[in-house]
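Contributing new complexes? Match this layout with IPE.
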Amino acid sequence: MDGNGRWARERGEERVFGHASGVESVRSAVSAAGELGVEYLTLYAFSTENWSRPREEINALMELLVKSLAGEVNELIRKGVRLRSTGDISALPEACISGLRDVEAQTAHCTGLNLILALSYSGRWELTEAVRRIVRSGTPAENIVEDTIRQHLSMPDVPDPELLVRTSGEQRLSNFLLWQLAYSELHFTPVMWPDFREDHFKAAVLEFRGRERRFGRTGDQVSGGVQDIKQGIKKEE
Ligand code: IPE
Ligand code: MG
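Output block (do not edit by hand):
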């Protein structure tokens, strides 16, 4: 979710105004994802690197988080959305931690969209944590395979993203889900996050659905219907 600050400055407003306006885009994304039958939506809301922003902006973002969680919980439950979080949550202010834990508990029974907030998150942080857990587990080096790493990620039950969307014209991963994005399709759009609404979200997913995903195979193998080579390939792709 990128471009809040620039969007606000273009309008002669403070950056925080852009963050507040971006909350409506989050609502739109959740609603569009629900309509499209998306099972997992992970929002990169605050990165490890974002801690180096001015204190006032960080505080405003954290307040916005607390306010939004409290304000949205009933709507999330109504829509069957289960909220989860990933990242170094213990680094967040106490009010954010308790707000998150509260909404996570209240939506734990929901079976619709899994909405994951990445907070104080970075891909390198997650991989570093995974290595620490593997070392602590005492697994012998020769027993470590790709799946060992996957199982020690923060959310081992969550499948790799099929599609990454980044707004605001930047074409970088910025330390997001580095392990999980290995085979994801990428969608970059110049639209700033506060302007990114349901139609943009749906257009990105529809465009993605038209792409051929080969996972290292040849085009002939894919059109010939080889479907069991890699987890996640479905017939309609
Ligand atoms: C993304 O918008 C929101 C967060 C990182 C919280 P930015 O704040 O990065 O906006 P720009 O990139 O400065 O326009
Ligand atoms: Mg930015």
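Reviewers usually confirm one structural detail per submission. For this one: Strands lie at 40-47, 82-86, 114-121, 163-166, 185-188.
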